[in-house]
Structure formats: structure tokens, C-alpha cells
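Morning, I've got a small favour to ask if you have a moment. Here's the protein in full, and shout if anything looks odd to you:
***
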Amino acid sequence: MMTRELPDCHGCALRQRREFLRDAALLTLGGLAAMGIGPARVLALPVRVGRGVRSRDDQVSYPVPGADGATIDKDNQVIVVRFEQKAYAFALSCPHQNTALRWHPADGQFQCPKHHSRYRPDGVFISGRATRSMDRFALRRDGSTLVVDLDKLYRQDRDPTDWEAAVVAL
């Protein structure tokens, strides 16, 4: 059997790329640790695409999530989130200019792709051009489902009491 010797890779592009990726990963983890976000928390919020069941014109039902995560329902423009034993229902659009929000698992945050406003999993505004937290829908638990009332959307700045109450303890 013939064996082939591999050339010394010191200084080659492959080695430089591996070193770059290692350093980038270490810097990212260091930054997250500085913000108090551990790797377990970042990876604990998976995002799924789903669709709610309309029970009436103004209400949509979703199964109560079994674990932390987010379900994005594009048809109804709703994000349902379970985070730290609480459930929330948010408008899919950023409160700044109505661009669809996205989940960024590397940061453990929702982010607006247009102007980079960032939000915690509970919808609280972190930074960017937006001037308030994500808009929350009223919701309630009905057995094994969460019922979201699409006619009751609360803004943190205009409806602070209702916005704070738009959460279900699990």
C-alpha cells in the first residue's frame, strides 16, 4: 500500500482559515460571556415555523410549547415564544418600520434585519433604532393551547400595563 505524505501546512491558507475560525469563535463566546449570556442559554431557544388554528376571526390557538423556543407564524404575523417558564405572543414586525423580525441564535436575540434593532426573547428592546420593545398580543392559556387575540396588540410605550400583563406563566 502506498502512503502519501502531506505537505507541511505551516503558513498555508487552510491553517490560517482554521485559526481565524477558532479565534472568531473564542471572541464570540467571550463577548456573550461578558453580556452574561452563556452558551446553554443561547442554544436553548430553537426557532420553528408553524401555523396557528383560527378559532374565530380574531383568535388563533397554538400548542403550549414543551420547551423554550419560538414559533413563527407568517400567515398570522405572530411569534409565539416560551422563555424561562413564560409564554409571549409578539407581532412579527419590528415596531420601528414593520420589517419582519428574525431570531439570531448566535446572539440569543431577535433582530430587525433593516436597522438592526435587537430584542431579548421576552421582547424587551436592547438597542438599535427602535424606540420601544416588541409589540405583544393579549394571550391566555386554555388547557394545552395558548390563545392569541389578534385584535389586542399592546405597545410598551402606549399600553405599559397591558403590555406587562400580556404574558402567561407556565
Summary: Residues 39-44 have pLDDT under 50 and may be disordered. Residues 115 and 129 are 6 Å apart (CA to CA).
